[in-house]
Amino acid sequence: MNAPYLYLEINIICILVLGYLLTKYRDAQVLRYDLLLFRRFLAAGVLLCLSDVVWITIDGATFTGARELNWLINSLYYALCSICTFCWYIFAEHELCSETRRPSGNKRLLIVPLVLVIVIDLVSWHTGWIFSVDAANRWQRGPYYFIQVIVNCAYILLITFQTWREALAAKLYVTRRKLRSLTSFAVPASIGVILSQVFAGYTLTEVGLTLSALLVYLNLQEQRVSLDGLTRLNNRSEFQCVLEGKMNFLNPDKPLYLLVLDINKFKKINDEYGHIEGDQALKRMAQVLREVGDAYGCFIARFGGDEFLLLCEADEEQQILDLCADIRSALAASNVHSGVPYDLKMSIGYAVYDPAFKTPEEFVAQADAHMYEQKRKMQSATENRK
């Protein structure tokens, strides 16, 4: 290492950055599983940088026990390298599965390479397979160092490939955008891990992981602006941006439809069962809309309160009628399995975009008016049956 002080400074900067990000996701926020996974990745990154700082200060030192300490720190460092990449894989896979609704992989099978490489790291104290420490207390790479490289790169590159493949297959533009962003997060980490194997003695792994963590943090901050905090659907402001974009760049071959959905008698649920149960009802409604809307390529948003919006293109109006029917069927199925003493019911209205609309608000108002018309018809039919 030609510049130990620069090496130390870079690691300390990485520790400060990762430590700061770690403090941003504590207390109640870690109840969200994605943030908990990200927090684990950050904690492993801080420990990795700390072990690297200790290593650079003792490598070549001559005090009593320095060589044994060097062995120990290197074993810890290489184990943490693999733990970091594994934590990244688990976090990225969770984000991928949340976005695509696909099941996650077998965690027990995925952890096998991690356990094996950690065992090899630990026994390198005696075998020198991954690394060794010479008589002058200097670290040296071992003959099987490539095993460490393969495992670390495999975790990052595997999830990056899976995410990119899903991004190419995604029908909805918003989903493609999110998955491509998730792919880009892994780029600094991948480059750092790979280059560190080529240029020994440079703190490239730590820098790459820190840059990836920063990208994730910035994306999470953006999500706080664009996503509804309760349902994790797009919020009203994000819907406004997407709708304006669609209105400015219309597909001439496919009309643009807007659906407005309102939960019937939602106030009664809040009054009789409490606002916590009301929140659960909104989450269940959001899940139903995701399951059905994604299949139709819809942009889904919570407009406010118990109102939801779906924006989609269709070849003909019958596709929108089918979408409405599928939403009602999915909600009925959800009611059967919900285990709560009430059923969720909704009113749905829709409108097709008319070039005469001067503002997005006019488009929304047209669909909203149709929804309230359907609600009145439903109420009248109920009263007539009585």
Examine the coordinates and then state which fold CATH places here, giving the name of the CATH topology of the largest domain: Rhopdopsin 7-helix transmembrane proteins
Shape: elongated
Instruction: Work out the strand percent.
Output: 5-15%
Distance between the termini: 86 Å
Main beta sheet strand tally, sense and closure: 4 strands, antiparallel
Name the helix and strand elements from N-terminus to C-terminus, one letter apiece: HHHHEEHHHHEHHEEHEH
Helix and strand content put the structural class at: alpha+beta
| Biggest β-sheet: strands ordered side by side in the sheet | 4-5-3-6
Mean pLDDT: 87
Instruction: Please tell me how large the radius of gyration is.
Output: 27 Å
> Can you count the beta strands?
6
The CATH architecture term of the largest domain is Up-down Bundle
Can you summarize this structure?
With 386 residues, this protein is of the alpha+beta class. 69% of the residues lie in helices and 9% in strands. The chain has 2 domains: 223 residues, Rhodopsin 7-helix transmembrane proteins (Rhopdopsin 7-helix transmembrane proteins); 150 residues, Alpha-Beta Plaits.
Characterization of the model:
The chain is an alpha+beta fold. It folds into two domains: 4-226, Rhodopsin 7-helix transmembrane proteins (Rhopdopsin 7-helix transmembrane proteins, Up-down Bundle); 236-385, Reverse transcriptase/Diguanylate cyclase domain (Alpha-Beta Plaits, 2-Layer Sandwich), CATH 3.30.70.270. Helix content is 69%, strand content 9%. It is built from twelve helices and six strands. The strands form two sheets. The chain has a four-stranded antiparallel sheet with strand order 4-5-3-6, sandwiched between helices. The chain has a two-stranded antiparallel ribbon with strand order 1-2. A hairpin with a 5-residue loop joins strand 1 (131-133) and strand 2.
